[in-house]
Automatic annotation (TrEMBL):
It comes from the Eukaryota. It comes from Paralvinella palmiformis. Pathway: Protein modification; protein glycosylation. The keyword Transferase applies. It is an enzyme of class 2 (transferase). It is found in: Golgi apparatus, Golgi stack membrane. This is L-Fucosyltransferase.
């Protein structure tokens, strides 16, 4: 996400207008006016957003169905383990998915991952129907995650920005460290609760 070529392809704004894309954006971007200003700068390239919408239109077969994106960052698993960090377990995803199913009868779970479909299924709970984003570029993955109605995120800055760009409910894993400290989520330290009340921390 920090590569300048990537940013120019994804977003319509010129490169020199874009902020550094990391989790710890400036405090002004956590204010309502700052968020809207940043969202205007981070407007997706027309071709990318058109393709992302077309992808969702192809999979949504029921009228008035809800799309819930799930992002899985799998390839950094060894690094996280060495650093004493937790990858959200299947129980977290199950609880998050059941939350959305309790709100709506027709939900499509759209999975984007940096692993194979088999690897992704092994990290997700059984008993749910998934739609996997196949053979897309990272730009397209981000756009699809952003335009779904809601999103469940896992780990990493890609997940965080997908959640930030998504305008629905974002569910994130409550714990960060292996000691399951209640206050250990790194996201809690970045996001003022009064500005991110649509972000819901969830346990497993």
């Amino acid at each position: 996400m920090n590569d300048s070529k990537t940013e120019m392809v994804i977003f319509a704004s010129p490169r020199d207008k874009l902020p550094a894309l990391s989790i710890a954006v400036g405090a002004e971007y956590h204010q309502p006016a700052g968020q809207e200003s940043l969202r205007k700068e981070l407007t997706f390239n027309k071709d990318i957003i058109t393709s992302a919408r077309h992808f969702l239109e192809q999979i949504i077969l029921k009228p008035n169905a809800i799309t819930v994106a799930i992002h899985l960052r799998l390839k950094d698993k060894i690094y996280w383990q060495q650093a004493g960090l937790i990858f959200p377990p299947p129980g977290y995803f199950r609880k998050a998915m059941e939350y959305f199913l309790s709100r709506d009868n027709h939900v499509y779970f759209v999975v984007s991952s940096d692993g194979t479909n088999t690897e992704s299924r092994n990290r997700l709970p059984s008993g749910f129907d998934y739609v996997f984003v196949h053979d897309k570029t990272p730009y397209m993955d981000l756009a699809i995650l952003a335009i779904c109605d809601h999103i469940i995120i896992s780990r990493g800055t890609f997940s965080w920005w997908a959640g930030w760009l998504n305008r629905g409910i974002t569910i994130y894993y409550k714990y960060n460290h292996l000691n399951y400290n209640e206050s250990s989520s790194v996201l809690d330290s970045y996001m003022p609760k009064d500005k991110y009340n649509h972000w819901i921390p969830m346990r497993h």
